Amino acid sequence: MMIPRSNRVAVNARFRTRTAATGVDFYAAELLDGFDGDELQPSRLWRRPGLSDIWEQCILPLRCLGQPLISPCNTGPWIKRRQLLIIHDTGPMVGPEWFSRAYRWKARFMTRRVGRRVRVLASVSSSAASDVKAEADRVDEVVVIPNVPTRREPTAPPSEAIRPLLDQRFVLSVATSDPRKNLQSLLAAWRRVERSDLSLVLVGGSASHVFADEGNHPDPPRVLRVGRITDSDLAHLMDACALVATVPLYEGFG
After folding, report:
1. Do 174 and 234 form a contact (C-beta atoms < 8 A)?
2. Among 57, 92, 58, which residue's Cα sits nearest to residue 75?
3. Which of 8, 36, 90, 222 has the fewest CB atoms found within 10 Å of its own CB?
């Protein structure tokens, strides 16, 4: 027997079309793993910069008409009241200098306008939920849906890009170039490390339409930037590293 469309939950799966995935996108993928819902994505035409926002606000509400909607990645259609919207943190309000002007405007709109309208508003930790509730000036509680990451096992042999690292001793940092990830402080601390047998490996890319320009600073010696890598390669590096270093200025997870 077919389940009536109106009884199935729709998912705002716009995040699956992004090539520059961030931790927010990985959170959504983990959350929806095995979830039986109607994942709705923009077509190739609507994935162009700027057009995906129009798709989310104008096309998505029509495609999920009569269905509840889950929007797991900070943004969702303003018109859709029957919606679970997950806002990960209030970073753009706490540190506006970390983000582009356009993204700051969108984040404020989503938190203060859409967050106030939707049926259920959620965040990823108790501290973030408290901040989001205050920013949205919302009477109802903000639900906490924490991230419970699963152990990712290597699914393929290491690629040529990381194979030489596996026989070395290194510190691993996994972060985008978002200024709030505080990589410059990590690099400043690394300049004081005198051990020549140890390297610092930086994994992560950037999303220039979201984050403010961090500027160009020369890296200290023994720093290796490998950019974006596959989940399998990241699992290999996690297994091989001496330790993981993360020093963000602000995180929704606390």
Report:
1. yes
2. 57
3. 36
Q: How far apart are CA 84 and CA 68, in angstroms?
A: 8
- Tell the burial category of 32 from Cβ atoms under 10 Å away from its Cβ (0-12, 13-18, 19+): middle
Q: pLDDT in tens for each of the 254 residues of the chain?
A: 344 455 799 999 999 998 777 788 889 998 998 899 999 999 999 998 789 999 999 999 999 999 999 999 999 999 999 999 999 999 999 999 988 899 999 999 999 999 999 999 999 999 999 999 999 999 999 999 998 766 778 889 999 999 999 999 999 999 887 888 899 899 999 999 988 899 999 998 765 555 555 556 688 899 999 988 888 999 999 999 999 998 999 888 76
- Its pTM stands at 0.82
How many other C-beta atoms lie within 10 A of the C-beta of residue 244?
Answer: 11
Strand, helix or coil at 199? strand
Do residues 141 and 119 make contact, with C-beta atoms less than 8 angstroms apart?
no
Length of the chain (residues): 254
* Contact by Cβ (8 Å): 190, 220: yes
The pair of structure tokens assigned to 221 is 């010696």
Q: 199 is written with which tokens? A: 């390297």
First CA to last CA distance, the chain: 44
* Residue labelled with tokens 């994942």: 39
Place of tokens 């930037």: 225
Given CA atoms 19, 50, 250, 119 in this order, what sign does their dihedral have?
Answer: negative
Contacts of residue 152, Cβ cutoff 8 Å, sequence gap at least 6: 231, 232, 234, 235, 238
